[in-house]
Amino acid sequence: MHSRIALLASIGAIALGSIGFGLAAAAEPPSPLGFGRPATPAEIAAADIDVRADGAGLPPGRGSVTDGAALFASSCSACHGEQGQKPVAGSPRLMGGLGTLATPKPVKTVGSYWPYATTLFDYIRRAMPFQAPGSLSDDQVYALTAYVLRLNGIVPDAAVLDAATLPKVRMPNRDGFVRNPNG
Amino acid sequence: MPGNVATGMSRRGVLRRTGLALAGVSAASQTARSGSASAAESDAPPSMLEQGAPVTDNPYGVPSVFEKAVVRIPGGKPPFPTAAHMLTPLQDMHGIITPNGLHYVRDHGGTPAIDPDRHRLLVHGMVDRPLSFGMDDLMRFPSVSRVHFLECSGNTPLYKSGKPEWSVQMTHGLLSCAEWTGVRLADVLAEAGLKPGATWMLAEGADAAAMTRSIPVAKALDDAILAYAQNGERLRPEQGYPLRLFLPGYEGNTSVKWLHRLKLGDQPFQTREETSKYSSLMPDGTARQFNFTMEVKSVITQPSPGHGPRGSGFCEITGLAWSGHGRIVRVEVSTDNGATWRDAVLQDPVLSKCLTRFRLPWTWDGGAAMLQSRATDETGAVQPTRDKLLAARGANYFYHYNAITTWRMAPAGEMTLAL
């Protein structure tokens, strides 16, 4: 479809050019040019991994705090520390820090700083664990998200998160962000 | 030591110095250059007495062996070497262009090696026609080349403190400038056709961090480039080969490298990078996010810490000025801690969202001095003092530090950072 439109546009441009004499040399390129090919639904689905603040993009699946705890111990705590508290140098602390943002030593963690719980799912899925990004199943990402939120006291021990429940989790610093007016 | 470098001492030089010259070299060839029967006492530079290295030795040229100290350095030993940065040696840069091998680097998941023949860019979301482009497709679009600076939002980490011995490479080296060539993003988006209400664009990299930032569509349609080349050659791997987004004037991390996906939407995507990372705390504990444009800024690159004057007398003060809002119109220099200012000369070309080289002839009397530069851009914005910046933002802001930097010069010429 796309290439057919482009072809017609090209023919049109050639026709106009031959009628308009010298105009063709300075003419703008036709738009659209017809470059590229239609993206297939399958390739879009495979690449479309982002999750928006309102939960758009969350996949099917679910994960519990309990499952997340076990997975965290085996895949995450080496860098982030047991229960996300004492990370190795260069690795972010994941819990605590509430009430510190206006002090001389702010501690920015998932619990104290992050405005959206959905961002946690998005980031774990795209970039964690550090040595093997993209290796977790969606269920595992839900479970780790649930566990890190539990570490911060944001969800209860029995929490099981999925595409319906995760967007409803309200983060402590949800209203702490202001768009820079001078961006 | 030059004599220890492979090309610095010739075979003949060795022979000459060991007293064997006459045994292996014809007398005629020596007298021809030196005009003396005693070649061993010739004053001619050794490089004039022999053939240099074969022209065909370096299919891809490299800097002189005597320039080995001019390199990028990390700010410290990074705990995670793939999530780290390297700083441009601004004190050794001339003019405004950063050589590709010295362009600053900030990676979040290492530098991938991507085969351009397998690399594709997906454009989808709120578009009429979701499209997939190969590099060959993208390079068919009308091309554009523009010279722009790129600055990391975390450049100049001086809100809380700095170390006196920090060089300008340490304080300002997450700054570089290159001629970027690619295609207008607006042209590529026109192929897909934006749906009404598409106001934000997610840009995603094909690296291990799957680096993502939300970009206003207004910026994408204004002056954004899909860049495939840098200073005349294809992008370096650490600059996003084979394709990067380039957003003139915006903080560096938004110019997503190894770009493989653009998704149009009607709101920002609130990724980790634009919520928890590249946001800034105000004194009341609220955070400012989407702090895109790098503000007006300048710094003196020579003389500077570790690169002080070689003696009293004439000493050219030179440095760089830039603004993400447009052209630099004025740079003033003070040698007395801001008590008095003189206008520096701006070196042509003075381009929008580009480094501008400034110079001021100065005679150093050999006494103590406090060197500062202060830039003004075409919007009238003037680079603030450190006190003014801290009063406006507090010390927890961390990013976008653009205050006037002061170099302290001791009577002996030793220079240090005075904040």
Would you kindly provide a written description of the structure presented here, covering whatever features stand out?
The complex is a heterodimer of chains A (183) and B (419). With 183 residues, chain A is mainly alpha-helical. Chain A is built from seven helices and four strands, in the order ααβαβααααββ. In chain A, helix 4 packs across helix 7 (138-151) and helix 6 (117-127) packs across helix 7 (138-151). Chain A is globular, with a radius of gyration of 24 Å. Mean pLDDT of chain A is 88; it is low at 1-24. Chain B is of the alpha+beta class and 419 residues long. In chain B, a hairpin with a 6-residue loop joins strand 7 (200-205) and strand 8. Chain B has three domains: 2-57, no CATH class; 90-288, Sulfite Oxidase, Chain A, domain 2 (Alpha-Beta Complex), CATH 3.90.420.10; 297-417, Immunoglobulin-like, CATH 2.60.40.650. Chain B has helices at residues 11-17, 21-24, 27-34, 135-138, 168-172, 185-192, 217-222, 272-277, 386-393; strands spanning 84-86, 105-107, 120-125, 131-134, 143-151, 175-184, 200-205, 212-216, 225-230, 233-234, 244-246, 259-265, 280-281, 287-289, 297-302, 313-314, 317-322, 328-334, 342-343, 345-346, 356-360, 363-364, 369-377, 406-409, 415-417. The model of chain B is unreliable at 1-37 (pLDDT under 50). At the A-B interface, strand 1, helix 3, helix 6 and strand 4 of A face strand 3, strand 4, helix 6, strand 12 and helix 8 of B.
